[in-house]
Specification:
Blueprint lengths: L1 H19 L2 H18 L2 E7 L11 H12 L10 E4 L8 E4 L3 E7 L2 E11 L6 E10 L3 H23 L3 E5 L9 E5 L13 H15 L2 H7 L4 E7 L6 H12 L2 E4 L8 H10 L4 E5 L2 H4 L5 H10 L9 H4 L5 H9 L9 E7 L17 E4 L5 H12 L7 H9 L6 H10 L4 H17 L2 H16 L3 H5 L7 E2 L5 H25 L1
Parallel strand pairs: 7-10, 9-12, 9-13, 10-11, 11-12, 13-14
Antiparallel strand pairs: 1-6, 2-3, 4-5, 5-6, 7-8
Helix pairs in contact: 3-4, 8-12, 13-15, 14-16, 15-16, 17-19
Cofactor: Mg(2+)
Pfam families: AAA, AAA_assoc, AAA_lid_At3g28540
Organism: Cannabis sativa (Hemp)
């Protein structure tokens, strides 16, 4: 009782002094007390407010990163007594946040740190003042602070990239306005685990994508724009669109499906490029069919050799459409550097119809040839559709594949989907389709062989020599010697016919 009475007397004395002493002196005494407390405490405290400055208008980006970082921490590993569970419409997962005026511990480089989420009401207002206070050992402050903040930024950006909802954009024909894109949630289920690709090609693509996404410092150091171009070519039904979706899901990127027929001119194309965001895949499907770019150079050459009619040039006819030069600037010009971490993907069924200027390195860095299913790709389809790792007819299928009875993933997938409830029936139908292709589909085989000749002949000499380069990434191994022999024979035939034509003339 005596101690309590002394405490009450002390509190009464402090209350009297607070009412008697001037406010300036009280502020000085309070600051001296805090300085003495900081001097005796073994910890340092750093406050990160929600807004920058005293006006409270500009958001503090570091506060947002700390919030994301704490959300990324495993809640089961924290010692916080109270967490707030939320989920927004733009997120694909639940988020754990620290409740107001509670703390959460973290460990970095063998040291224990803590974050306290302070939420204080603003006097005479319904608003609240929020901030995070970082508590760390004072002795190791200089060594811990900078690496720890860098660690927070990396983890926060990774969490934001993975947790946010991905979008699928398409141009609406008004690229010169504020927003030339409209979007829907991107929820394509294709992944590299379910993709019907040979393991070697799958590993090459995933390694290249991972090296690109982690190559920010490298691209800046060598002075190149942080972008990469992919060309996917092959017959219909070989999985070009599924591969694009798997790439987007693998990197957690948004997808911009650019429809060139809706773009009026090069200026609108440039405006659409500026409106795309970082960490995105820009797709132009069927590049040889979207606009007539291949014949543009030939028409320019004819215009140089022929005089203009009535003194007017034909450039007025091209001013109202997308030209080859505009598309080249879109992929590799100065305006292509207005963003970072973007992948541009072209698809085509016939690589020979694409202008060579679009295919060189720096524009289309990786050329991926997609063809019929190989043994590993077929087993992946059987696993996906039928849930089987093996079957009695697998050896028969392998023999059919070696004999030239390979089908496209779309053809095999349709058979398996139709008979997904009866695995034996599905496998027998696949074998029957492959045998029919071998025995009765000779015309289709001839078309495929001609397609392979054209595709092999369209490759540059450098890509043929550099077998490990991305220009030789094919979905299934073929008979390279036979293809080279056919290409050589075809070139000799052309040259011989050319000489005959000159002699006859």
């Amino acid at each position: 009782m005596e101690i309590l009475s002394q405490l009450w007397s002390l509190l009464g004395l402090l209350t009297v002094l607070q009412n008697v002493l001037p406010s300036q002196l009280l502020s000085l005494l309070h600051s001296l007390y805090e300085s003495l407390q900081d001097l005796l405490s073994p910890y340092s405290y750093l406050e990160i407010p929600e807004f920058n400055g005293y006006c409270g208008v500009e958001l503090n980006d570091l506060y947002r990163h700390v919030t994301l970082y704490i959300n990324a921490v495993d809640p089961s590993a924290t010692t916080c007594r109270r967490l707030t569970l939320t989920r927004s419409k733009s997120s694909t997962r639940f988020s754990f946040a620290v409740a107001p005026n509670h703390s959460v511990r973290d460990v970095f480089s063998g040291h224990t740190l803590s974050w306290t989420h302070h939420v204080d009401p603003v006097p005479d207002s319904l608003e609240e003042r929020r901030s995070f206070v970082l508590k760390l050992p004072k002795r190791h402050r200089q060594a811990l602070l900078s690496p720890y903040l860098d660690h927070i930024l990396l983890k926060a950006e990774e969490f934001e990239r993975v947790s946010r909802e991905r979008r699928l954009f398409t141009n609406n024909g008004h690229g010169s306005y504020e927003s030339g894109w409209v979007s829907v949630p991107f929820r394509h289920p294709s992944t590299f685990d379910t993709l019907a690709l040979e393991p070697q090609l799958k590993k090459q693509i995933t390694d290249d994508l991972m090296a690109f996404s982690n190559g920010k410092e490298f691209y800046h150091r060598v002075g190149r724009a942080w972008k990469r171009g992919y060309l996917l070519y092959g017959p219909p039904g070989t999985g070009k669109s599924s591969l694009i979706a798997a790439m987007a899901n693998y990197l957690c990127y948004d997808v911009y499906d650019l429809e060139l027929t809706k773009v009026s001119d090069n200026s609108e194309l440039r405006a659409l490029l500026i409106q795309t965001t970082n960490r995105s895949i820009i797709v132009i499907e069927d590049i040889d069919c979207s606009v007539d770019l291949t014949a543009e150079r030939g028409s320019k050459n004819r215009k140089r050799s022929q005089p203009s009619i009535n003194g007017h040039d034909d450039e007025d006819q091209q001013s109202g459409r997308v030209t080859l030069s505009g598309l080249l600037n879109f992929t590799d010009g100065l305006w292509s550097c207005c963003g970072e971490e973007r992948i541009i993907v072209f698809t085509t069924n016939h690589k020979v119809n694409v202008d060579p200027a679009l295919l060189r390195c720096g524009r289309m860095d990786v050329h991926v040839s997609l063809g019929a299913c190989g043994p590993a790709a077929f087993r992946a389809l059987v696993k996906n559709y039928l849930g089987l790792d093996t079957h009695a007819l697998m050896e028969v299928v392998d023999n059919c594949l070696r004999s030239g009875g390979a089908l496209t993933p779309a053809q095999i997938g349709e058979i398996l989907l139709r008979n997904r409830g009866e695995a034996d029936v599905a496998m027998r139908e696949v074998v029957a389709a492959m045998q029919a292709r071998i025995l009765g589909g000779r015309r289709e085989q001839v078309k495929d062989s001609q397609y392979c000749e054209v595709e092999a002949g369209s490759r540059s000499p450098e890509s043929v020599l550099l077998r490990g380069s991305p220009e030789n990434w094919v979905s299934s191994p073929g008979k390279k010697r036979k293809i080279k022999f056919l290409v050589r024979l075809r070139s000799l035939t052309k040259s011989d016919s050319g000489r005959r034509g000159v002699g006859d003339h």
